[in-house]
Amino acid sequence: MSNSKNLVLNPKDLHFIPFSGSEEFGVNFNAYTIDNKWLAIDCGIGFAGHRFPGIDILLPDPAFLEARAKDLVGLIITHAHEDHIGAVAYLWKRLGCPIYCSGFTAEILKLKMADIPGNDRAKIHVVRPGDQIKLGPFTCEFLAVAHSIPDALAVGVETSVGRVLHSGDWNMDPTPTLGDITDEALFRAYGDKGVLAYVGDSTNADVPGRTGSEADVEKGLGDLFPEIEGRIAITLFASNVGRVRSICKAAKANKRKVVLMGRSLHRMVGAAMECGYLRDVPEFVDDRQMDKIKDENLVILMTGSQGETNAMLSRVARGEHPFMTLNKGDTVVFSARPIPGNEEEINAVKNNLAASGVRVIGTGDTMHKIHISGHPCRDEILDMYRWVRPKIVIPVHGERSQLEAQARLAREAQISSVVVPTNGSVIRIAPEGAEIIDHIPTGVLAVEPNRIIPSGHVAISARRKMQFTGIIHITLVLDDRGLAEDPQITTMGLIDHGNEQEAAFEQDIADEVEDALAELRDSELSSNDKVAEQVRVAARRLVSSELGLKPKMSVHIVRV
Ligand SMILES: [Zn+2]
């Protein structure tokens, strides 16, 4: 393994490095390099989950590219999903390069950049499908793809070694309700120029068949609505503007009006309208006015399909929203698939709703189609290989099992060179095939309200330990002769809080600590390190024998 400083590459060769996103869902961050110049593609966030207590989102670690920022010719964002765009506003200052993306993606990016100070110098260039731009040794061409967000792009990257098609996220929805199809003629034409490597979306590489169409969802929702009597609340990704349109059309057909709840939905819909989308849907109803409309004439859209703690649906389900409640007679429809890892949070929201008598309809609970994936299933990926005819396939965007599933598919399709990366793999892409030639250390960063820290930061590991083992604080006031006052003991997460048992337990520890200190000589008593260690060992021995636990221990010494 090279460290990030000493990686030496032949500048005549073309290399690809997925820094993150190629072992997990989220934090997509990739780069190509040739002639000592670098081109980055996507810079997204990931959900932190239980492994990172106190942390909601993760960012890719940009240190490697930051060290090469003067040779970084650009950052291309394929589309405005959080896992591709979400980290740009946090990290742009460390990269400092121009950004290239489609019109809708640029609208969303500008809003995100404005949320974080210091981003006003960023140059965001809008590109359109069919555009060709030259960024140092890379000639980039943009091809429209259908996806669950408007204006998604695949990127053709042409270099002196050959062409790479970097797919971004896509599916082959033949009749999207909004935006472009993934056009066979355009991809075949790009393939005709000769494509050396295809670097592509693996999300659904283990799912047989095809994704289907958003038009089917519009019909599915239109058929479902008449079966529901009261209010309908639908939870979805705010960015799925095509879904918003499907819901609006199904609602109109069923004489229901649509309410948007929450900032992120208003932002996304506003940006889409700015770009000319959603001009044909009826006006949305203000959420403060919805009480004036009969229950059977309402559809309420809200975020929270992944059980995110602060999303609208979670807050409403917990009864924490200032004026919106969901009760018996209401129905919540989940028009989104759980992202792997979010199941527990989603179930918690569903249980809260069920406890209030709300009917919940998930994707598996109805015969009607209420969701399609934005990612290609196996037959679509095979079609893409046939259109583009790459020599090399490099699966990205997924967990290991999805990457391996696409690799198997590529081998079945007689692709001669298939390389499955891990995060940090340095892959040489050459006319005779691709190979992993090195590996650089990569990682993710954790976002706290006022700082960004490495995900391995001692604060996070300490939190994790405290979560599992509890904690004991010991405060000692010492003078020249030893303890000047009784030791103060506080325990957390060990015994029932505030009862006699806790007081007795803390007294036991205090007694043990006093005995342990009495064993020390005067010279040892003058050393804080020696005192702390002596006390820690004694307290740990007692807790271990009484509870069988090894809590985190902090010893605070005050000298008077
Ligand atoms: Zn996406």
Give an overview in words.
The chain starts with 13 loop residues before the first strand and ends with a strand. It has 560 residues and is of the alpha/beta class. The chain is built from 16 helices and 28 strands. Helix content is 31%, strand content 24%. The strands form five sheets. Strands 8-7-6-3-2-1-21-22 form an eight-stranded mixed β-sheet. The longest helix has 20 residues. The model has no long low-confidence stretch (mean pLDDT 93). It folds into three domains: 278 residues, Metallo-beta-lactamase, Chain A (4-Layer Sandwich), CATH 3.60.15.10; 148 residues, Metallo-hydrolase/oxidoreductase (Rossmann fold); 90 residues, Ubiquitin-like (UB roll). The structure holds zinc ion. Zinc ion binds next to loops.
Binned strand content? 15-25%
Give the overall pLDDT as a whole number: 93
Structural class: alpha/beta
Classified by CATH, the class of the largest domain is: Alpha Beta
CATH homologous superfamily designation of the largest domain? Ribonuclease Z/Hydroxyacylglutathione hydrolase-like
Into which percent range does the helicity of residues fall? Answer: 25-40%
**Principal-axis shape:** globular
The largest pleated sheet is described as: 8 strands, mixed
Tally the helices: 16
In this entry the ligands are: zinc ion
